[in-house]
């Protein structure tokens, strides 16, 4: 009842945080309690105003800091991540805003260090990240969970949690200090569920998960390249099967494009060398060239070119190309020839034609040191 | 799963089509509710699936009675279906066709819009493209903000953007100057939209959009002049059009404005909807109702899975059997197949029922001639600012929502539309997708002609227009510009030949030969075409050599040229510079949006 009396006055951030936490716990026990959800909505919108301000009022730094301290003390951040699915529409958005504000907060002294809450999550409460990932199983809160995750993924340490966590629901998540990057994954961790979510989700879910997935691959290279190298077979098995061969046009197109980006990325050099040495990968992307959809053919081309341009082609790749030499030489010149404005594409295409013409009649061992 | 979703809706007639795709009316089978379904062909958009997703996520996180309600989105093959609330009254731009609105109507619409904007702004969203075309009315007169094609989500409510998007006439000065802007930019656009509704067109409507970009920051803010308007309305517009965004009031503040407080109930707007229906009826407008026809390319590709030989890896000596070539479909025939499929499609999407008189159907697609009688100038005027200027952006005021998108996201329908397209080719039908115009005759001369227009003639007309003050002369110049633009659309090849022979004739005349730079012999483009070549391309090197060899020769010519009209007028160089800078920013903005451009 205390908060009723304080309506007129200003409530302490710590009271608000504790109150919200209690409501969240109640909601967790009875998720269908509309009254609690409604109450929670009101309180969360207050908390949002406190940390975000309004168009006319700047938020106070001290308030934000107090909210964070209280939220850490009360374990509110975890409860929010776990409870977001049960919140009403507006409260989900408020929660997302609250997250994005507190995730960015830095103490004055730690200008170039990690924000306070990121450090806290990484070392004390990695379960927060895992709960947010699990939000992808529910299409109701995909957008909010995805936005929060991508905010947090600005820091590699968060990516490491997603990559190496293999905890079951209810178990404590992986501790950053326990991660051994040399140990291969068994493919049951939270990261591997991304493949299923992308492939089977509705457009909105799938597109959002994919955005996060892409983000991890391209923006958290420091941890990701090692991860892909250590789990090469598993990773590309899933990538090829669930994504590149997906029945969904968008998944297929986006993942083929992403594949092309990875292979041409300097950081993924060793991955590229291994990928383009495999004849089954070449087979996959030759099939993409003959896809029904032109944009997929086009993205497939940008993967195919890496195989052909590779100066040290493996014997199996050479053999596949040689066996299809005549077909390729007939196929490529008119391939996507309506792209008259795309000079780079046309240059690359004629380069590939030349390379295929120059192939020997029999595969030769690639030069040593490849 | 996605396919199941599509069966939940009974598709009905087409409501409109634009660069973004085609919008259909549909019935949600489970509820019987009428909805609008937008089909976006992803295959025709180069690389903005992520942007589309962005748009959807902005939409999906809006829940306000003043904003068109998003319902669902799903994939069907390579088409994305977005299901939205259906608003039967049409857009304010459509409703303006029978004539301008009175102040009472404008007050109601502005009051509703302000509530919509207040909602968006408190959510940290900026609409960025507020204009009459993006305001939809329901049959009952409810007013809703629509089209979030360029909307932005700010992470921080106080943060700023500096991307360059919107539609020039409605753009706030700070957006154009890219000094960083926030939600106040929408308030400016609202002010312009208010003028549009009371006047029939936004300020500067007769001026080329590129030129407008330069005028808005430079000139004093537009004002509504004239005794016929109440002082409350004039003050409201003046408040919205405060050039300094910091001093411009917020949506919430404007809701307290006298003009807004006097606003009546939205039911009064039904008059506008009725007026439009009657107007359509009087005009004897025969709607070309087009019904939805499944045009998905569901035909599975001919079985050429054996097109590649994959089975030989373990048997290296095996050589493809002689007959294997027959199995591989000849690429040519493959393409022929595709062409014939397209022809089939064409038949399918022909309206199954002949055009009929249908005043009740929604009126977004308007037939050719009768355009905004409220516009004071002949309707062709609009076209001048329309179809083709340098970037080929469709600037007609229309229902073309995400101004910037139009370059890439084309309605795939449009390709099969040629029957209509030719009929509309020269009209100013804003609902028309620009696609038919891009149905390029792909021969080289046509391309050069198009290029000559885009890079030379069009720009030249603009430049001269930009330095001409006299109204009569301006009219004449803009008529000429239109004529060129028409020619470019209809017969780029002819345009090429005209430019070419003009240049040759100049060259042969001793007095005029100074007009034409003798070198390089590229008469097709008065401006040098920008070559995009791979860095290692041998042609590039020789090209550079040629260019560098040219430099000393061409400079004296430049001096000569500067004496001619249409070139830099002494004292006016800054305008040229500025418009160059703006043009640069514009194209940079585009490049950011599509790395491919």
What does the secondary structure layout of this molecule look like, with pairings?
The complex is a heterodimer of chains A (370) and B (597).
Chain A lengths: L1 H4 L7 H17 L4 H19 L8 H14 L1 H8 L5 H15 L12 H9 L2 H8 L7 H11 L3 H9 L25 H11 L2 H17 L1 H10 L1 H13 L4 H15 L5 H8 L2 H11 L4 H16 L5 H9 L1 H7 L11 H15 L13
Helix pairs in contact in A: 2-3, 2-4, 2-5, 3-6, 5-8, 6-9, 9-12, 10-13, 11-12, 11-14, 12-13, 12-15, 15-18, 17-18
Chain B lengths: L1 H5 L2 E10 L2 E8 L4 E9 L7 H12 L9 E7 L2 E7 L4 E2 H4 L7 H20 L2 E2 L8 E3 L5 E3 L6 E2 L19 H5 L6 H16 L9 H10 L12 H10 L10 H4 L3 H4 L8 H13 L3 E2 L36 H4 L3 H19 L6 E2 L22 H5 L27 H4 L2 H7 L19 H23 L4 H20 L1 H17 L29 H24 L11 H21 L4
Antiparallel strand pairs in B: 1-2, 2-3, 3-5, 4-5, 6-8, 7-10, 8-9, 11-12
Helix pairs in contact in B: 4-6, 6-8, 7-21, 17-18, 17-19, 18-19
């Amino acid at each position: 009842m205390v908060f009723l009396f304080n309506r007129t006055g200003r409530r302490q951030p710590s009271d608000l945080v504790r109150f919200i936490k209690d409501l969240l716990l109640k909601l967790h026990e009875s998720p269908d309690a509309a009254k609690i959800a409604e109450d929670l909505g009101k309180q969360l919108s207050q908390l949002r105003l406190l940390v975000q301000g309004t168009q006319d009022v700047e938020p106070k730094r001290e308030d934000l800091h107090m909210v964070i301290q209280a939220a850490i003390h009360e374990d509110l951040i975890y409860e929010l991540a776990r409870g977001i699915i049960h919140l009403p529409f507006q409260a989900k958005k408020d929660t997302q805003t609250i997250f994005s504000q507190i995730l960015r907060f830095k103490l004055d002294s730690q200008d170039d260090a990690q924000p306070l809450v990121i450090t806290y999550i990484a070392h004390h409460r990695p379960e927060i990240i895992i709960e947010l990932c699990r939000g992808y199983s529910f299409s109701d809160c995909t957008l909010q969970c995805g936005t929060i995750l991508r905010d947090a993924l600005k820091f590699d340490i968060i990516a490491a949690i997603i990559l190496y966590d293999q905890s079951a629901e209810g178990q404590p998540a992986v501790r950053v200090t326990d991660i051994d990057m040399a140990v291969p994954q068994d493919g049951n961790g939270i990261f591997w569920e991304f493949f299923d979510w992308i492939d089977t989700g509705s457009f909105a879910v799938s597109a959002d998960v994919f955005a996060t997935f892409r983000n991890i691959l391209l923006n958290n290279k420091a941890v990701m390249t090692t991860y892909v190298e250590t789990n090469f077979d598993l990773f590309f098995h899933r990538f090829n099967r669930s994504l590149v061969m997906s029945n969904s046009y968008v998944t297929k197109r986006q993942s083929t494009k992403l594949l092309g980006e990875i292979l041409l990325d300097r950081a993924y050099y060793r991955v590229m060398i291994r990928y383009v040495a495999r004849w089954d990968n070449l087979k996959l992307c030759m099939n993409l060239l003959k896809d029904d959809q032109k944009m997929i053919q086009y993205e497939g081309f940008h993967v195919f070119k890496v195989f052909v341009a590779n100066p040290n082609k493996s014997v199996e790749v050479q053999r596949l190309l040689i066996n299809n030499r005549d077909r390729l030489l007939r196929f490529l010149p008119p391939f996507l020839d309506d792209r008259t404005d795309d000079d780079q594409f046309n240059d690359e295409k004629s380069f590939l034609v030349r390379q295929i013409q120059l192939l020997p009649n029999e595969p030769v061992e690639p030069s040593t040191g490849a | 799963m996605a396919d199941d979703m599509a069966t939940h809706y009974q598709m009905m007639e087409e409501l409109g089509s634009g660069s973004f795709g085609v919008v259909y009316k549909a019935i949600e089978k489970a509820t019987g509710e009428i909805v609008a379904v937008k089909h976006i062909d992803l295959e025709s958009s180069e690389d903005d699936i992520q942007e589309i997703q962005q748009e959807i996520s902005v939409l999906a996180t809006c829940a306000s009675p003043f904003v068109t309600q998003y319902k669902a989105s799903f994939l069907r093959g390579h088409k994305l279906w977005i299901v939205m609330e259906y608003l039967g009254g049409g857009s304010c731009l459509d409703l303006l066709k029978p004539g301008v609105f009175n102040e009472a109507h404008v007050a109601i619409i502005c009051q509703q819009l302000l509530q919509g904007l207040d909602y968006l702004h408190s959510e940290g969203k900026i609409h960025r493209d507020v204009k009459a075309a993006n305001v939809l009315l329901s049959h009952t007169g409810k007013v809703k903000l629509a089209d979030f094609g360029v909307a932005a989500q700010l992470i921080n409510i106080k943060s700023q953007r500096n991307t360059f998007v919107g539609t020039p006439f409605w753009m706030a000065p700070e957006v154009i100057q890219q000094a960083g802007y926030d939600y106040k930019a929408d308030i400016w656009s609202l002010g312009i939209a208010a003028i549009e509704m009371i006047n029939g067109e936004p300020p500067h409507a007769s001026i080329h959009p590129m030129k407008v970009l330069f005028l808005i920051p430079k000139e004093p803010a537009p004002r509504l002049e004239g005794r016929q308007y109440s002082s409350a309305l004039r003050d409201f517009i003046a408040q919205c059009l405060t050039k300094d965004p910091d001093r411009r009031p917020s949506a919430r503040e404007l809701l307290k404005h006298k003009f807004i407080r006097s606003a009546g109930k939205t039911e009064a707007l039904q008059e506008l909807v009725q007026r439009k229906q009657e107007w359509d009826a009087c005009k004897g407008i025969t709607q070309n109702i087009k019904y939805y026809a499944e045009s998905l390319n569901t035909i599975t590709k001919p079985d050429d899975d054996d097109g590649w030989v994959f089975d030989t890896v373990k048997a290296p000596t095996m050589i493809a059997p002689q007959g294997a070539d027959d199995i591989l479909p000849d690429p040519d025939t493959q393409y022929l197949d595709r062409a014939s499929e397209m022809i089939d499609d064409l038949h399918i999407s022909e309206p199954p029922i002949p055009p009929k008189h249908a005043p009740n159907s929604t009126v977004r697609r308007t037939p050719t001639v009768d355009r905004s009688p409220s516009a004071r100038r002949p309707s062709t005027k609009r076209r001048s600012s329309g179809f083709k200027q340098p970037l080929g952006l469709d600037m007609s005021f229309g229902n073309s929502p995400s101004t910037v998108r139009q370059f890439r996201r084309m309605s795939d329908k449009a390709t099969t539309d040629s029957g209509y397209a030719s009929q509309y080719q020269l009209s100013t039908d804003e609902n028309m997708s620009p696609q038919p115009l891009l149905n390029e005759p792909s021969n080289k001369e046509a391309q050069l002609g198009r290029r000559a227009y885009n890079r030379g003639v069009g720009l030249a007309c603009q430049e001269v227009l930009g330095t001409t003050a006299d109204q009569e002369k301006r009219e004449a110049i803009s008529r000429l510009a239109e004529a060129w633009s028409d020619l470019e659309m209809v017969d780029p090849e002819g345009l090429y030949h005209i430019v070419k022979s003009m240049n040759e004739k100049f060259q042969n005349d001793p007095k005029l030969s100074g007009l034409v730079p003798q070198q390089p012999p590229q008469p097709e483009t008065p401006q040098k075409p920008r070559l995009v070549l791979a860095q290692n391309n041998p042609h590039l090197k020789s090209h550079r050599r040629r260019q560098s060899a040219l430099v000393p020769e061409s400079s004296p010519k430049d001096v000569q040229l500067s004496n001619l009209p249409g070139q830099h007028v002494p004292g006016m160089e800054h305008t040229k510079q500025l418009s160059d800078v703006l043009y640069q920013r514009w194209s940079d903005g585009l490049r950011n949006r599509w790395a491919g451009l």
